[in-house]
Design a protein that fits this description.
12 helices; 15% strand; binds 4'-deoxy-4'-aminopyridoxal-5'-phosphate; four-stranded antiparallel beta sheet; seven-stranded mixed beta sheet; alpha/beta
């Protein structure tokens, strides 16, 4: 079938079985992806027989570890179409966005400057901006959504002014799967000289990406949504910005300095300035294994699979007259919905008993819930190991929930 990945890929993922060995229908990959054996093994080796610190050892093991850590930076950068000298390792997308808000924002924002966000942002692309707005006197503007729940770029174009210094949008919404028209967003930001940050958490595992041609300034993502470990992610920064002096040091400490003295400290150049302290060494190496694994399958193939599954699930849910489906018809791998008179938490609990894992709640997007006028949604999200049997199990679970609620 078109858009099907080899079924035996599932065997690579020990997390896709329950404790007693039964298949587990995992439909929460947008929260975090299960890990292939290659990632788990890479992490175990890096924590075990290969383990040592990076960047300062005089012994061979440390030099090897340093090379592996820097090879990871190279591989992750290449995976998104960037260069290693543009890629800062962070704890995840959240830290990446906080880094931009604190480092670029504190250096560049003045009272009266404006930051443009959208109604569908994850809390991690809202709260860091609120903190820096509070500190600098900048103001936040919120772009509404279209009727089919995309960021309304026509409205954004009408709102933007020369006071806007930052536009920060999700590339793919974690609740709705809405895909941003990045070329149009970039042209809009350019037209007033604003920086463009894209929150790529949900896009990197789902859409082919080439940062060399995507005209943004900052791109943030997490390894754990890309089949890699937690505790590491990346911030890609357009090369000239790193050296421009528009970014202050973020955190101070070891590894980010050139020379420290009580009379004054100088900082390391490039990305190194933004990686204070001993980094997540094993995690970086496992992140490398993850991008190798995903790269070998191909994001195009993953996208084709997830698109087919998303289409089918949306169609089946829309055919039920008591279900509301949120988001546009071309959602990328993520389907949010609500069933009349059944709270999404109750649905999630009953589905769990049937071996189906979905997310229920506000998905760290409370302003979006307010906009949609619901307290919560149920969300099913796909990954490279997803298949039609996961949807079958979900639909059966929904039918069972309806019966339990006397709604059959
Ligand atoms: N942005 C989006 C769109 C996300 O989906 C998430 C994770 N749910 C984040 C940011 C935050 O990522 P992390 O928790 O890995 O830092």
């Amino acid at each position: 079938i078109e858009g099907m990945l080899p079924a035996d890929l599932r065997a690579d993922f020990p997390g896709l079985r329950t404790a007693d060995g039964a298949p587990w229908h995992y439909l929460d990959t947008a929260a975090t992806a299960q890990k292939p054996r290659a990632v788990i093994d890479a992490m175990a080796r890096a924590m075990g027989e290969d383990y040592a610190t990076v960047h300062r050892g005089v012994y061979a093991r440390s030099a090897n570890m340093t090379a592996a850590y820097e090879a990871a930076r190279e591989a992750v950068a290449r995976f998104v179409g960037g260069r290693a000298d543009e890629l800062i390792f962070t704890r995840g997308a959240t830290e990446a966005i906080n880094l931009v808000a604190q480092s670029w924002g504190r250096a560049s924002l003045r009272p009266g400057d404006r930051i443009m966000l959208s109604q569908l942002e994850h809390h991690s692309n809202i709260v860091p901006w609120q903190l820096v707005a509070e500190a600098t006197g900048a103001q936040i503007d919120v772009v509404p959504l279209t009727d089919d729940h995309r960021i309304d770029l026509e409205a954004a174009e009408a709102m933007i002014t020369k006071r806007h210094k930052m536009v920060a949008f999700a590339h793919v919404s974690n609740v709705l799967g809405s895909v941003l028209d990045t070329a149009r967003a970039a042209a809009m930001a350019r037209s007033v000289g604003a920086k463009l940050l894209l929150d790529g958490c949900q896009a990197v595992p789902r859409l082919p990406l080439d940062l060399a041609t995507l005209d943004c300034d900052f791109y943030a993502f997490s390894a754990h949504k890309l089949y890699g470990p937690t505790g590491i992610g990346a911030l890609w920064v357009r090369g000239d910005l790193l050296e421009s002096g528009e970014m202050l040091p973020y955190q101070g400490g070891g590894a980010m300095i050139d020379r420290v003295a009580f009379t004054g400290t100088t900082f390391a150049p490039g990305t190194q300035r933004f990686e204070a302290g001993t980094p997540a060494i094993a995690e970086a190496i496992a992140f490398h294994a993850a991008v190798d694994y995903v790269g070998a399958i191909g994001v195009e193939a993953i996208h084709a699979l997830e698109t087919r599954l998303t289409d089918r699930l949306r169609r089946e849910l829309l055919a039920m007259n008591d279900v509301t489906v949120f988001g546009p018809t071309d959602s990328a791998g993520i389907v949010s919905f609500a069933i009349d008179d059944i709270h999404s938490h109750d649905l999630g609990t009953i589905l769990d008993e049937a071996g189906v894992a979905i997310r229920a709640g506000h998905h760290c997007a409370q302003p979006l819930m307010d906009y949609l006028g619901v307290p919560a949604t149920a969300r099913a999200s796909f990954g490279l190991y997803s298949a039609d049997d996961d949807i079958d199990a979900l639909l059966e679970g929904i039918a069972r929930t309806r019966r339990l609620f006397g709604k059959a």
